[in-house]
Design brief:
Blueprint (H helix, E strand, L loop, with lengths): L5 E6 L5 H14 L4 E6 L12 H6 L3 E3 L16 H7 L4 E7 L2 H8 L10 E7 L9 H15 L5 E4 L9 H18 L3 E7 H5 L10 E4 L24
Parallel strand pairs: 1-4, 1-5, 2-3, 2-4, 5-6, 6-7, 7-8
Helix pairs in contact: 4-5, 5-6
């Protein structure tokens, strides 16, 4: 899944693309690689790789993302260092890209410097999301991404999940639809992903591709622990 110098991960909202990008970058760093993660997702303000900046810093991973006042803006901003990293043959690069039209066009703005022979462009599929309810819909979405991004998709990642409600059956049903999508498109399914508790129940399944265990890193706002104020009034009486 991360065999080439550059891995581009594209996926629509709720696909789990950002978690896969973060887990992949952290895994490469743990294996001794010097890794750069480029956050080109301009679609989801609460689920972006840049939200894990402290974790990436601790692992020695360089993060390329807009900073300052535009750090959380929904704007098609590409920091100049991304083009430099794409051209640098020594740079091991993971790119997190939004999968809607705007997100894919951001990738398209870099297509002139994306080294095709040294890159994998992987679409992350979650068949429990409305945009990818079946193989035909998923294949159409992949073709739209290719047209907007001006690059060819090289593989699919089966990441069907329902967050904490995910079961082995959910993962296997999604994998079957990912395989059907891959057959339509003529590309491989390069991985099936699951969290460790679900993956343990899938160990004996014949999947035809690697089973990648994911750690949940970016939590949605409603799952984040409440913050206790340590200064100032806890409430104000009018």
């Amino acid at each position: 899944m991360y065999g080439r110098r550059i891995t581009v991960l594209v996926g629509s909202f709720g696909s789990g693309k950002t978690e896969i990008a973060l887990n992949g970058a952290l895994g490469l760093a743990a294996a001794g690689w010097t890794v750069t993660l480029a956050d080109l997702d301009v679609v989801k303000p609460y689920f972006r790789s840049r939200a894990a900046r402290a974790i990436l810093d601790e692992a020695g991973i360089r993060l390329l993302a807009p900073g300052g006042e535009v750090a959380h803006a929904d704007l098609p901003i590409v920091v100049p260092q991304v083009r430099t990293a794409l051209r640098d043959p020594s740079c091991r690069l993971v790119i997190d890209v939004g999968g809607d039209g705007t997100g894919a066009r951001v990738l398209g703005s870099l297509s002139d410097v994306l080294p095709v022979a040294d890159s994998d462009v992987l679409v992350v599929l979650n068949f429990r999301r409305p945009a990818t309810s079946g193989a035909e819909e998923a294949a159409a979405m992949v073709r739209q991404i290719e047209a907007a991004a001006r690059v060819k998709v090289t593989g699919l990642v089966s990441n069907t999940h329902l967050m904490r409600e995910t079961t082995p059956r959910v993962v296997l049903e999604g994998h079957r639809m990912a395989v059907a999508t891959a057959e339509i498109l003529g590309v491989p399914v390069v991985a099936v992903t699951a969290t460790s508790d679900v993956a343990a129940d899938l160990a004996g399944e014949e999947l035809g591709c690697p089973l990648v265990v994911l750690q949940r890193i970016v939590l949605p706002p409603f799952e984040q622990p409440p913050q206790t104020r340590t200064m100032g009034p806890l409430f104000v009486v009018n």
